Structure formats: structure tokens, C-alpha cells
Amino acid sequence: MGYRHVYLEGVSLQEVRDVLGEREARLSGTTGQVIVVLEPPTLESYYAQQDEIAPLAAELSGKLNTLAFAVLNLEEELLLFWAYDRGEQIFAYDSNPMYLGCPVCSYVSETVGPEAGDIEKLAQLFGHPEKARALKSWVGRKRGMGFLRESQRHAEIARLLGLPGPSLEPAF
What we know:
The protein has 5 helices and 7 strands; from the N terminus they run E-H-E-E-H-E-E-E-E-H-H-H. By secondary structure, it is of the alpha+beta class. 34% of the residues are buried.
């Protein structure tokens, strides 16, 4: 099972509801943070769901003039995330670019590692520039080196960025 979430900083639940309109999503929040929980991804609808979450995060970030961090975890085998600042994509990450292209060589391939943007910029964006080195370690780490599931990688990256981890989020 996987999940799709968008974390938003400095906004209220009502502001997010207003932008979402009739779109189906569950919301949870604490003071200053809202999590938008979308229907979990499936292998069959992966491409359509990936095409939905990134634009939604950009829209929410732009219309609410805030930071957004969108995450897609597909079957604990693939972790994608994007960071937006006021609607502009600042960072993108793919833990396993070969996952759908080559199931046999997926993730054990020594030649194709994770694809990531500028880690220092990501750490700065969320106010934790001192954690860039630790973030770089977790973003580039291969499975089995401190974690077995992508949700564990996500939890550590979220902690370093000061965001809630996947275990704190409601199920859909």
C-alpha cells in the first residue's frame, strides 16, 4: 500500500478547503500545518495520480502563498516528492527511477540511483540549512542502509525538514 499527501505550511484547514472545492481529499491539521490526504496510488493508475498530485501541490502553494511538500509512495517501492514555494517548483525527487521501467533490475541497479534536485535549497526552504548533509544522506541512500521501506525514508526526510511523518497521517 502507498499514499499521496501534500503538506502545507502556515495555512488553516478552511483556507485549504476553499481552494480544494469539490475535489475529494481528507484534511488533517495542527497549528500552522495542514496535510491533504489523497486516495492511495495504485500501480494501474500511477501515472494519472502522479500527474494529479504535483499540479495540486503547485496550485495550493500558489493560491495560498505558502510552502507545499507533495509525497507519493507507491507500494513501498518508490518515493516521489516535490517541494513548492508560492506555486513554483523548487525541488523534485524520485527514489527509484527504474522502478516501472525495469522491474527485474529495479533498485538493485548500481548504475541508476535516485534523482534529486538541490538538497541545500530544499533544506534552506524549510528553514533547516544545517540539516542539508543529513538530508543528502537519506535522499541518496539505498534500501537496506538504515531503512527497508520507503515510508521509513520518508519519515526521516520529513523529520529533518520539520514536517510530520507518514505514521502521523490519517489513512484514506
